[in-house]
Amino acid sequence: MKKRSNDFLLGAVILGAIVLIVAVSMFLRESDLGAKKRSLSARFRDVGQVQVGNSVVIRGVKAGKVEAIELDATGWVHVRFALDDAVTMPRDPVVLLGASSLFGEWQATITDRQSVPNNREVATMLANAAGAKDGALAGAVLPDVAQLTTVAGGIAGDVASVAQRFQVAFNDSAARELRSSIRSVSQLSSDLARTVRVQSKNLDTIGVDVRAGAADLSRAADKFLRSVARLDTATSSGEVQRIVRESERAAVQLREASERLNAITQSLQKTEGHLRGVMGRADSVLMKVDKGEGTLGLLVNDPRLYRNADSLLVELRALLADVKKQPKRYFGIRIF
């Protein structure tokens, strides 16, 4: 009897251990007994470190888990998810795989396409994975911490290189040139401010002139309106018709004067032709005189004529002087 009770106790312990192991396994796998599930699939080019059993999150709330990961013949990786039946899907859902912690745990996030991070690689992967024939959602892998660290390290190296180049470029001479440039800019600002003040005064003067011009224009407009009113009055009294008739007579007289002036111009043209002929002949005569041709040319160009005329005048003056002194020698007067 005692042996049977020990066997029963041993069986109960073994059965309890099995139940405990099953319960712990189900707890670790986060199994929900009796809960309705629905299946959903997505395709990826790469799934990173995602494993079966990882969580599926929608709007930050756990909504299921990764049920299976399969690789097809075309190179696509199909991931099947088991989601709670009561979960509401986004309007245009896509699946993003990424690290959920710094300890290597990953999760699948179902989100709207408009909420996808602005990343060129992620957008390219989603565009390539879209349009699956079996209705699988488009999926992409977010950069993990290692990739971000590598990129950050590269950026830090580039920043250090730029800082080193900046330190090499920004030496003492560059600092002096920069200070000189700052002084030049300050002086330029002062000159510009002074110019603005001067030009503001000029603008004030121009504004006064413009206002005066506007006043003059207004007065001119008033005078014009008065002139138009007078013209209207003159038109009603017949003065405009009289002015038009006088203008017509003046136009006729002006036309007659123009015709007379034209005739005079033609006569002057003929006279000019005759005068040109006379001037040509006079020029020919003067050229002959200048060359010493003819009697007049000989008289003009012979210097002996001047000397003889001069001696003749001298002798004539002496004769007149002698006649004044002794007129009886030359004149005989007899009185009967």
What distinguishing features does this structure have?
336 residues, alpha/beta, 7-stranded mixed barrel, 8 helices, 15% strand
Question: Could you explain the architecture of this structure?
Answer:
64% of the residues lie in helices and 15% in strands. The chain is α/β, with parallel strands linked by helices. It has a 7-stranded mixed β-barrel with strand order 1-4-3-2-6-5-7. Strand 5 (93-99) and strand 6 form a beta hairpin. Helix 5 (239-291) packs across helix 6. The termini are far apart.
Q: What integer is the average pLDDT? A: 76
The oligomeric status of these chains comes to single chain
Specify the structural class: alpha/beta
How are strands sequenced across the largest beta sheet? 1-4-3-2-6-5-7
Please work out how many helical segments DSSP would assign: 8
Secondary structure: helix percent:
55-70%
**C-alpha Rg, in Å?**
64 Å
The residue ranges in which pLDDT falls below 50 over 5 or more consecutive positions are none
Query: First CA to last CA: what distance?
Result: 235 Å
Q: Specify the overall morphology.
A: elongated
Sketch the topology as an H/E string, one letter per element. HEEEEEEHEHHHHHH
- The total strand number stands at 7
The main β sheet shows up as: 7 strands, mixed, barrel
The portion of residues forming beta strands comes to 5-15%
